[in-house]
Amino acid sequence: MAATAFVSGATGFIAQHIVKQLLEKGYNVVGSVRSESKGEKLKKNFGSNFSYEIVEDLETEGAFDKALKRHPEVTVFLHTASPVTAQAEDNEKDIILPAINGTVNVLKAIKSSAPQVKKVIITSSGVTQLDGVDLSSTASEDTWNSISYERAKEDGIAAYIGSKTFAEKAAVEFVETEKPNFAVSTIHPVLVIGPQAFDSEAKGQLNLSNTYVSGLLNLKASEGGELPQSDGIFVDVRDVAAAHLIAIEKPTNGLRVLVHSEGYSTQEFLNILNKNFPELNLIKGSPTENLVDNKYVGDVKSREYLGLNYIGLERSVVDTIKQFLEANK
Ligand code: NAP
């Protein structure tokens, strides 16, 4: 019989690719969503081997118990749901606490209501391996972000970084104190770019991490203006999903798996867009300046563990923008 995986936050950009790849591999998938309309939309796209459970609020005590009790066939749990935003009215209440409490609720529910689950994969982030809010610091499988709770509350970016860090620490503490019957692995993507799992999802505003690229489509050459500079490391969403599937099948043995492809900068994005979509007539910036070293190899252990042939920046950007333009014609 096919194995069944539970995916929390199944509506998410990354989660939809995880579900898609799980179904392609022959798994049945149960996803948690926040409303019936969201669940029905997913069901239409994913087909009959996908079903959903409504979990309105990650933070409600026992939020996942009922959903898990209804699915004794689930043997793997992938926890992706978490607030992905840097803009909130209340950083602690809207970003930090749902991430921490959601993770703890998931782990408690599995322990008490799904003893047959042996593997839990948590979508953490490369930011939990950085130094504070310094996005240019080097992340590796062995480093932990030391951001304090007080600092995390100060602004949206710090809150997101703190939320992921504290949630992962809460999971480590849960395993140490509760000694559950399941193994917990964490996957640490850097900035995730890539096409949506379904063309229909590319209509309108894209998910937050893709706006690093799609936001540049507003910079028309005719209007001139300054190019906002940022740089970092990216990974394609299809590789992030593949990393989750690898972690199901091959124990991570405590390796906090960093998933990344190569470097990006705003200028590199713009160069790729101008080369592949000249009809958009975007500003040129300074095409030979502010490029990044694409040979980033900071995560030897994770790279060896995953053995992925990572999708490069140009293909990722082109696939994302082609789909976006087509969907929004
Ligand atoms: P996304 O598209 O915004 O998906 C987030 C998911 O979490 C959605 O299903 C969302 O539900 C759910 N969610 C958010 N807040 C919630 C809450 N308070 N209660 C219940 N559900 C909630 O983001 P994504 O980019 O796919 O990110 C997925 C995971 O990957 C997150 O854990 C994120 O931290 C991690 N990650 C992302 C990146 C990146 O660059 N994208 C990089 C590293 C790690 P709705 O659809 O109903 O809002």
TrEMBL record:
InterPro entries: Epimerase_deHydtase, NAD(P)-bd_dom_sf, NAD(P)_dehydrat-like
Family matches, as Gene3D superfamilies: NAD(P)-binding Rossmann-like Domain (3.40.50.720)
One MF term in the entry's GO annotations: oxidoreductase activity, acting on the CH-OH group of donors, NAD or NADP as acceptor
Keywords, comma-separated and alphabetical: Oxidoreductase
Ranges where the NAD-dependent epimerase/dehydratase domain occurs: 6-254
Record flagged with keyword ATP-binding: no
Homology family: Belongs to the NAD(P)-dependent epimerase/dehydratase family. Dihydroflavonol-4-reductase subfamily.
Name of the protein this chain belongs to: NADPH-dependent methylglyoxal reductase Grp2p
Species this chain originates from: [Candida] railenensis
